Amino acid sequence: MFRSFLHLSPCPVAAGGPERCAASGSGGLCGLLPAGAVAFGGWDGYLRVSLWVLLGLLAVLGVLFAGMFGRLLEARGEPPATGFEAMIGEVGVVREPVGKKFSGWVFVRGERWRAVAARDAPHVIGSGDRVEIVGFRGNAVIVRPAGPEGGPGRAS
């Protein structure tokens, strides 16, 4: 009998995205109600919980899950913070010359990356020049001279 209270129905929200995580939190709250009812009514007389404790716990958890759900929805529009996608547009410094036909090394975000020049880049980008990451080819970054802020030229 006790196990039947723990069974949760499938989440009504489509799989994927931040809604899935928040829906599982609301599912946990819904699952806490029947479990609390068992505890409130007693289970073989050994376990009793105050109704006010149960309602307080549900209120606190509800506020926490609502806050998490709101933050997850805000995060949907933010650009990626990690991975390859987050590096597009980053500016680095050439450590070894980079060309269209040969690879060199650039230093970006405190990491050393193998790099090749973009099609619209000069034939060779020299050591010390500032470059912008525009894509990836395998495990190498594709770079071109940095834009107007740093411009192509020596990094300070």
Automatic annotation (TrEMBL):
Keywords, sorted A to Z: Membrane, Transmembrane, Transmembrane helix
Under what name is this protein listed?
NfeD-like C-terminal domain-containing protein
Q: Which organism is it from?
A: Rubrobacter taiwanensis
Chief localization:
membrane
Its annotated compartments are: Membrane
Q: One GO cellular component from the entry? A: membrane
Q: What InterPro entries does the record tag this protein with?
A: Membrane_assoc_protease (IPR052165), NA-bd_OB-fold (IPR012340), NfeD-like_C (IPR002810)
Q: What domain of life?
A: Bacteria
**NfeD-like C-terminal domain segment(s):** 85-145
Membrane topology of this protein: Multi-pass membrane protein
Q: Does the keyword Transmembrane helix apply?
A: yes
Q: Has the keyword Metal-binding been applied to this entry?
A: no
Q: Which PANTHER family match?
A: INNER MEMBRANE PROTEIN YBBJ, NODULATION COMPETITIVENESS PROTEIN NFED
Any single Pfam family the record assigns to this protein: NfeD
Residue ranges annotated as transmembrane are 49-69
